[in-house]
């Protein structure tokens, strides 16, 4: 499969007077359809990296390619369109709109460019709500459901425009361990069913270990990068020695 995201020599410096380099010459690519996790200590630069990959933030130097198209030089309105069509975001703080229902929240990314939901989008929203197990509460207001259900609403919302990529920053950070495992299974299932590329920042080892690839960040650098399919051959190599 081709790469869907590529970063070439990406650096990020915060601050004008006191400059802090939080990403240092990062070179990394992600293959289409894979499930990737990013791990690293707090403050290592994970969120900065994810935001830059998702075009929410610009690199100070370096190039970003999404689906073969360079994005770091794009204008705001071009980026808006690219993001809305290609990338779904799931953050720990869901930013659901409490005065709208679960169903309306799921359709919100579509509603940004359209005044009325089409029948297709309504059908898709209902299918996604079925997939994430929220059909029963779809007409509840978004602040009238549990934390786990809010997380599921945010997942369905991230998928409404059928994005090629889902970027997720500590999606289960405030859920208990059972809910965490269930959310992970859900994301993995979506990855397998829809071939959506996932890049998930996590501090939860159970999520990281089940990904196809684990990227480790330390002090703004990639210090570890392991692919699951390479683990068995690595083990053979060790055994042969
Ligand atoms: N907007 C900002 N302005 C200045 N410094 C920032 C900003 N955002 C993040 N940082 C700093 O960049 C470093 C990396 O942050 P972040 O990417 O959020 O790390 P992580 O997600 O791994 O915890 C931290 O030292 C943080 O304080
Ligand atoms: Mg972070």
From TrEMBL:
Residues 5-240 form the ABC transporter domain. The keyword Transport applies. GO terms for molecular function: ATP binding. PROSITE patterns: ABC_TRANSPORTER_2. InterPro entries: AAA+_ATPase, ABC_transporter-like_ATP-bd, MacB-like_ATP-bd, P-loop_NTPase. SMART domains: AAA. The keyword Transport applies. Keywords: ATP-binding, Nucleotide-binding, Transport. Pfam families: ABC_tran. PANTHER family: ALPHA-D-RIBOSE 1-METHYLPHOSPHONATE 5-TRIPHOSPHATE SYNTHASE SUBUNIT PHNL (PTHR42798:SF7), LIPOPROTEIN-RELEASING SYSTEM ATP-BINDING PROTEIN LOLD (PTHR42798). Belongs to the ABC transporter superfamily. This is ABC transporter ATP-binding protein. It comes from Clostridium neuense.
